[in-house]
Amino acid sequence: MNRKLILIPVSLLLIFVLLNTLIKETKPVIPILEANDSILLDKSRAFLHSDIPQPNPIKKEIEVRSNWENKVLQPTQWGESVTGVMNRINTDEKFIALTFDACGGPYGNGLDEKLINYLREENIPATLFINARWIQENKEEFISLSEDPLFDIENHGTEHRPLSLNGGTAWGIKGTSGVGEVIDEVMGNQHLIYSLTGDTPKFFRSGTAFYDEIAVQIVEDLGLTVVNYDILGDAGATFTSDQVKNSLLNAKPGSIALLHMNQPTSGTAKGVMDAVPELINRGFQFVTLRDYPLTK
Fold this sequence. Notes:
This protein has helices at 3-26, 40-47, 56-68, 113-121, 132-137, 139-146, 179-197, 213-221, 241-248, 268-281, and strands spanning 88-89, 95-102, 126-130, 151-155, 169-170, 173-174, 203-204, 225-226, 231-232, 255-260, 285-287, 294-295. By secondary structure, it is of the alpha/beta class. Strands 2, 3, 4, 9, 10 and 11 form a six-stranded parallel beta sheet that branches. Strands 1-12 form a two-stranded antiparallel sheet. Helix 4 (113-121) runs parallel beside helix 10. The model is unreliable at 1-39 and 43-54 (pLDDT under 50).
C-alpha cells in the first residue's frame, strides 16, 4: 500500500478540523438569561459593556450619544404624526398589518391568550410591539412568541414613556427629558430583546405613540424606524368588540392597525376575530411590517 496516499488525506483532514475549530471560536455568542432571572433589564444594560460581539445597531449607541448630547435642541412638533413617523405600508395592494402592543407595568402585564391562539389557528401574521416590563413579567411567553414565525417582535420602549427632548406629557404619562433619556428608553429594551432572542428589532413605537420630531431623528440614528398607525384599532384596549371590528373594517390598502395584546378582558380579541373573516372576504392579506416598505 502506498503510504503517501494515506498521509495526504489525513493531512487535509487535520487542516479541515483546525479551520472548523477557529470558525467556531470566532462566532458571536448570544448571552442566555436564566428562566428565573428577576433582573433581566439590568443584565441587558450591562450587556452593552461586555466583551460579547454585538450587532451594529447596539454598538452604534455610544456614537449616537456622542453626536447628539452636546447639541442645542429645540423641538417644534409634538404628537403622533410628527416628521419621520411611518403610519402605512407603501402599497396599493390590499395588504393590512395588525400590530399589537404589550405595554407592561401599570398599563397591563397580561396576555390575551384567546387573541394569540386565534392568530395562530388562522395563520394570521402580526407585528408585536413589546415593552421591557412586560417581558420581565412574561419571559416564557415572550420567548414562545419570539420563536413563532408568524410574529415579528419589535421595540415598545423600556418604561413605556412618550419620547420627548423636554419632558412632554401624553395621556397623563410624563415623557423622557433630554437625549440621554430618549436613548435609554429605546436601547434598554433593544438590548433586552437582543439578549433573549438574538434578533434586533427594526421598528420602535413609544408608550402613548407620542414623540417630538428630534426624538424621532435620534431613534433613526440608532437604527430603528418609528411606526404608528392609520387605524386606531382598540383605543388602548378600551373599545368594545363591535368598535374594534368597525375600526378594522375601515382598512385601506396599506393600513397599519394599532391594537393591544396585554388586556385579556378587553373587547380586542373578539373584535379581531369578527373582523378578520370579513377582511379576507374583501380581498385583504395580512402582513408584518418587515414585509414591505413603509410610508407616512
